[in-house]
Design goal:
Layout lengths: L10 E7 L3 H12 L4 E5 L6 H6 L1 H18 L15 H19 L10 E5 L3 E4 L2 E4 L2 E10 L3 E3 L15 H4 L8 E5 L3 H12 L3 E5 L11 H13 L3 E3 L3 E8 L2 E7 L5 E6 L1 E4 L3 E3 L32 E3 L10 H16 L13 E3 L4 E6 L2 H6 L5 E6 L4 H5 L6 E7 L4 E9 L6 H9 L4 H5 L10 H8 L14
Parallel strand pairs: 1-2, 1-6, 2-3, 6-16, 8-9, 8-14, 9-10
Antiparallel strand pairs: 4-5, 5-6, 7-15, 11-12, 12-13, 17-18, 18-21, 19-20, 20-21
Length: about 475
């Protein structure tokens, strides 16, 4: 029985709390099923993290920085390069215009075509399990989907709250280029930021608590990427413990214990916190629902995207599932089906390709050799370096490698890790091999155009059983 009376016009089949990619995917799917839906957005503008402060602006700045790099560095004799002129404010202005255009066309312009959807702005708070309050009004949903996203987790460091720290969101709004950056953290967001701003002329130092960058990846991957980042001038300090942060004059200083257990201090004009995320759940009133969360406020869900509260689902970055915009959209459709259809659809992330958009990129799918070892799966590893791939040789850019992990008992691919310029473009061939259990011998037997990077996948597969270095260029 309801504790509150809710007007009939404020009762919906579905309430979606949030307005990002996950929420829109759910709303579009619900509308196709003629489900009366209310979307409540009270955080970032509609479109959420990806289009406003995440994927779109970050990749724009990464590409801008790449153009600066290409204009400054050439591997070819006879190609003279120079220092390009950079108008940082104009770069940010163009970024903002692009973000606004995509936010309008990819989100706001969709709303008139969704007749079963009502949208309101405001922060939702649970009054009871199926009733939320927004702007002083009560709304009831037979089913509720939480898609409120995540935000930067600020670590408990002495003095951090007394300095004007930036996050990946606020950094992209600066119209004046930082002279120097200290970045706390070395996950994919931190590394993408570091390289982009270093290439634009900002002096960047990374301070990381773990012993390596991208701490969840194997040492060969992290060592290879770190080698190329430091070659561009980025200072990387791993295995550190930050003692204190404070402002001194116009700069921010950081005291930390380095990997040799010595105390050091560095300073920069700006500091960026990129040490992980927490779920946007603090003000939702989840205590009224019985929904279970982690210490970081992320909502626990099962493979049907159900929370621990009946009829309440959660999707996107606010959950413990992989936090990518394409997984968020995938979850949006699944959650609606599972809420309103008898035939449920499980969320399956077992074949999930991912990319770190540094240069060279780091990309992967499936499990690596460490995970295979932990799961006691028979496995064999081959690492094929770009210095042996014709496409990379003629481009004079042989940074990185393609690593394949297979089960030698059935010749099936278990996973792959790639460090290569534009290496993410190789992932879908590898993902399909894993998903549809295509033996490596089938890929070896396929035509791969000569002088493409994708030929490197074939050569890597061949290297399990053949010394490819002793073959002529086209003898595969």
């Amino acid at each position: 029985m309801d504790c509150c009376n809710v007007d009939t016009e404020k009762k919906f089949d579905l309430i979606i709390i949030g307005g990002g990619s996950a929420a829109f995917a759910a709303a579009i799917h619900a509308d196709s099923m003629k489900v009366s839906t209310l979307m409540i957005n009270g955080g970032l503008p509609f479109g959420g993290t990806c289009v406003n402060v995440g994927c779109v602006p970050s990749k724009f700045l990464i590409r801008a920085a790449e153009s600066i790099r290409h204009a400054s560095v050439s591997y070819f004799n006879g190609v003279n390069t120079g220092k390009p002129t950079i108008n940082f404010a104009e770069i940010i202005k163009q970024k903002t215009a692009l973000v606004n255009d995509m936010q309008q066309h990819k989100y706001m312009d969709l709303l008139p075509g969704l007749p079963h959807l009502k949208v309101i702005e405001g922060k939702a708070k649970f009054i009871e399990k199926n009733i939320v309050e927004v702007n002083g009004e009560l709304y009831k949903g037979s089913k509720i989907i939480i898609a409120t996203g995540a935000t930067t987790l600020i670590p408990q460091i002495n003095g951090i709250n007394d300095v004007p720290y930036l996050t990946s969101k606020t950094l992209f709004e600066l119209e004046e280029q930082p002279q120097s950056l200290i970045i706390l953290g070395a996950g994919y967001i931190a590394l993408e930021i570091a390289q982009a701003y270093q290439r634009m002329g900002t002096k960047v130092t990374i301070i990381q608590r773990s012993k390596s960058i991208l701490s969840k990846e194997a040492k060969d991957v992290t060592d290879e990427l770190e080698k190329h980042l430091t070659a561009e001038g980025i200072i990387i300090q791993t295995g550190t413990t930050v003692n204190k942060v404070w402002k001194e004059g116009n700069n921010i200083k950081v005291s930390y214990i380095n990997s040799a257990y010595e105390t050091e201090a560095i300073e920069a004009s700006h500091i960026v916190v990129a040490t992980g995320t927490k779920g946007n759940t603090e003000e939702l009133g989840l205590e009224k629902t019985g929904i279970e969360t982690t210490e970081r406020g992320l909502i626990k869900v099962d493979d049907l995207l159900r929370t621990s509260a009946e009829d309440i689902f959660a999707i996107g970055d606010v959950t413990t599932n992989p936090a990518f915009v394409y997984t968020a959209a995938y979850e949006g459709g699944k959650a609606v089906i599972n809420a309103f259809k008898a035939h449920h659809k499980k969320a399956d992330f077992s074949v999930l390709p991912w990319v770190v958009f540094t240069d060279p990129q780091v990309a992967g799918v499936g499990i690596d050799e460490r995970e295979a070892e932990e799961k006691d799966i028979p496995h064999q590893v081959t690492t094929f370096y770009l210095k042996d791939i014709p496409r990379s040789i003629v481009a004079l850019d042989t940074r990185g490698f393609i690593k394949l992990i297979r089960n030698p008992e059935n010749d099936l691919l278990l996973g792959a890790r790639i460090v290569a310029p534009e290496g993410g473009e190789l992932l879908m061939q590898l993902s399909l091999m894993i998903k549809y259990k295509i033996p490596l011998k089938e890929i070896i037997g396929m035509f791969h155009p000569y002088l493409t990077l994708s030929e490197g996948v074939k050569l890597a597969a061949m290297s399990f059983t053949t010394d490819v270095k002793k073959m002529s260029c086209c003898a595969s």
